[in-house]
Specification:
The complex is a heterodimer of chains A (114) and B (111).
Chain A: E1 5-7, E2 10-13, E3 19-24, E4 31-37, E5 44-50, E6 53-57, E7 64-68, E8 74-78, E9 87-94, E10 104-105, E11 109-113
Parallel strand pairs in A: 2-11
Antiparallel strand pairs in A: 1-3, 3-8, 4-5, 4-9, 5-6, 7-8, 9-10, 9-11
Chain B: E1 5-7, E2 10-14, E3 19-24, E4 31-37, E5 44-49, E6 55-58, E7 61-65, E8 71-76, E9 85-92, E10 99-101, E11 105-110
Parallel strand pairs in B: 2-11
Antiparallel strand pairs in B: 1-3, 3-8, 4-5, 4-9, 6-7, 7-8, 9-10, 9-11
Classes of the chains: A mainly beta (114), B mainly beta (111).
Chain lengths: 114, 111
């Protein structure tokens, strides 16, 4: 139990649709990172939010966007869904960025695009 | 692009056996972390190694960081079925916000 909660846990969308995934960070954590984990792969960094600002971005197209709210919870939005977007989406929270500080992962949201 | 290569990709052993999994890179990492992930769950941090040559022990698990901070190993002694899971190594390289993960080693310990 890491204190990081994600919703929904599972969902199925059709190609071309849009999806919003939500993350509630651990109490006191001001940094949220999002990762995509395809089947049989390690997690890939999407982006990080620190105090409501995007703090860094991985190699993902602009149709992947995010938000962080004043209570430090976060959303990941994906537009124009493609079949390859099917994956486990992980949210991780930490204090003041990531490096040097322990990050805590949620259990993830399983997205299937058909 | 910094990459972490893990080997072996799959490992199936009997309870009581010892095993070592490896995490290698051509890049230097400021720190390396090992995670264990069970089906349907997020990765859980096992250990962070920071100093080249560092060795850390966590019960039956021994973690080592290479002298040049480019590689790491995880050794499990007397494996138990409860050790079954996906073991991931991850490191902070040039950026201080992005964790680069390997593809993982899927370990199955049979009773």
């Amino acid at each position: 139990e890491t204190g990081v909660t994600q919703s929904p846990t599972h969902l199925i969308k059709t190609r071309g649709q849009q999806v919003t995934l939500r993350c509630s960070s651990q109490s006191g954590h001001n940094t949220v990172s999002w990762y995509q984990q395809a089947l049989g792969q390690g997690p890939q960094f999407i982006f990080q939010y620190y105090r409501e600002e995007e703090n860094g971005r991985g190699n993902f197209p602009p149709r992947f966007s995010g938000l962080q709210f004043p209570n430090y919870s976060s959303e990941l939005n994906v537009n124009a869904l493609e079949l390859d977007d099917s994956a486990l989406y992980l949210c991780a929270s930490s204090i003041d960025g990531a490096s040097g500080n322990t990050i805590y992962f949620g259990e993830g949201s399983w997205l299937t695009v058909v | 692009t910094q990459l972490l290569e893990q080997s072996p990709q799959f490992l199936s052993i009997q309870e009581g056996e010892n095993l070592t999994v490896y995490c290698n890179s051509s890049s230097v990492f400021s720190s390396l972390q090992w995670y264990r992930q069970e089906p349907g769950e997020g990765p859980v941090l096992l250990v962070t190694v920071v100093t080249g040559g560092e060795v850390k022990k966590l019960k039956r698990l021994t973690f080592q960081f290479g002298d040049a901070r480019k590689d790491s190993s995880l050794h499990i002694t007397a494996a138990q079925p409860g050790d079954t899971g996906l073991y991931l190594c991850a490191g902070y390289g040039g950026s201080n916000y992005k964790l680069t993960f390997g593809k993982g080693t899927l370990l199955t310990v049979n009773p």
